[in-house]
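Problem 12. The chain below contains 317 residues. Write out its predicted structure in token notation.
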Amino acid sequence: MLVSILMITYNHEKYVCKALEGVLNQMCDFDFEVVLANDNSTDNSDLLIKEYVSNHPKGFRVKYSNHEKNKGMYDNFIWAAKQCRGKYIATCEGDDYWTDPLKLQKQVDFLEANPDYEVCFTNIRMVDENDVITKEALITDNRKTDYIKKDLPIWAPTLTRVYKNRNFNNLPKAPGMDTAMLLWQSQYGKIKFLNEVTGTYRVHEGGIYSSHSEAKRKEQILLTNLACLNLVETSLYSKYFGLIFKKLVEVRFLDASIFKKNKNLVKEAFQTYKAQLPLGLKFKIHFSFLLISIPFIESNKQIKDFLIKVLNRLFIY
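Solution.
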């Protein structure tokens, strides 16, 4: 088995059959399976999945499981990954879908020809819950196409990723599991971006990320970067602490209680890693705590932009 397509789903009754259609329509010169893990959905997903699989001519490729108890996204992913037999794993969640029938073939061909690469991802378009296109291509900047650990974090759409099958038991638990996972994978090899639109990301109220408030979304990024500190070398601490402080500033302008809670978490992280930090970085962190705690009018965008600019100069650019 060369490829396992890993699909986790929860309450995606409106969308999961379209997700299945996209993966089963792949045209490949190799064998693949679909590992579909339903995290005890409370809607009609189970019934719809069983009906779709039983009626589809390629339904035999689907290994479907419906958990008796809800595991949560992280544990459901780890469980599903353990069921994958392929040399490579491709991911697509139950509310997204693939649009290019040659997607898998292109990415697997690249990884097979370039064994020093660990992950390959592509571009995507975005739609709303009614399949109305809101962005023809999400990645529109002239970004590079090859990445190593020091280049991260980057936005790499999870629904397009194909990567080597490894033991994911040591994958760090973080709100932004996809970001932490890519960083963890970078210890094994390089990351490739193919600038072709091969899939569609759906923004809807039930989406795990898109349904959160702006403050909660920024908090998730902050907490993810905190978790990533455990995966990077000393030389990258400055970059990640800079990213963390910038998110703290953004959160302060959105929600005072979330800011206070996360400021304390950052202080705890600083104490944890303090012994490993060079003297200059310790000073920058102490100064940043003072900087973001100065009383000011939270509605003043100019102050926020100034603080972000100072933090960029201190830690990153």
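Discussion. The beta strands are 3-9, 32-38, 62-66, 88-91, 97-98, 117-127, 133-135, 146-147, 162-164, 190-202. Students who got a different answer should revisit the alignment rule from Section 12.3.
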